[in-house]
Amino acid sequence: KMAADTSVDILQKVLENEILQSTKVVEEHLDAEIQKLDQMDEDELERLKQRRLEALKKTQQQKQEWLSKGHGEYREIPSERDFFQEVKESKNVVCHFYRDTTFRCQIMDKHLTVLAKKHIETKFLKLNAEKSPFLCERLRIKVIPTLALIKDGKTQDYVVGFTDLGNTDDFTTETLEWRLGCADIINYSGNLMDPPFQSQKKYGTSFTKLDKKTIRGKIYDSDSDDD
User: Fold this and answer.
1) Comparing C-alpha atoms, which of 180, 195, 82 is closest to residue 122?
2) Label partner for 124 (CA 20 to 30 A): which of 80, 87, 156, 210?
């Protein structure tokens, strides 16, 4: 018992010492930073201020430019011709190929509306697949909904149905955000190695199996069982 108590005491002392040491290091670092600021002359501080202002101005200008190109809101474009124009003027574009009769497209709409406001660095569009047969063929879009992820005018990736989103209709906006982050089509601040839908599984979310059908190049709903 005595020996056990002694080792606990020693451990406690070691820990206290560790904490003291690390606190000391932090304090020394802060002191050094404060000293550095104290030693800065007026000119250096002014230059620092100017650099900050320049950076802020640049960010603001970039934001305005994006907004002027239709970023910041989720919009429907009327035709295939508009698609080419929209894609040409923006570096990052997410385009949802939808169909009115497919209920999963409405689920996608809900999430994209939120993400368009949050990620103004990316343009979010929707296009009626039935009105754009040429594009659907060219981009090989067979399943609705499909998101085409376009970078510098080239289609880099697709989100087809809900397969990548945890295979469930009640995936979260965060899950879609993570998937777009994986494609580097938005500035994603979370951890790409930790998909949000993994935590959903713990709560026993019912997962719907999605069927992908692409017979003879015809477009199918991702929720159709047969045709």
Assistant:
1) 180
2) 210
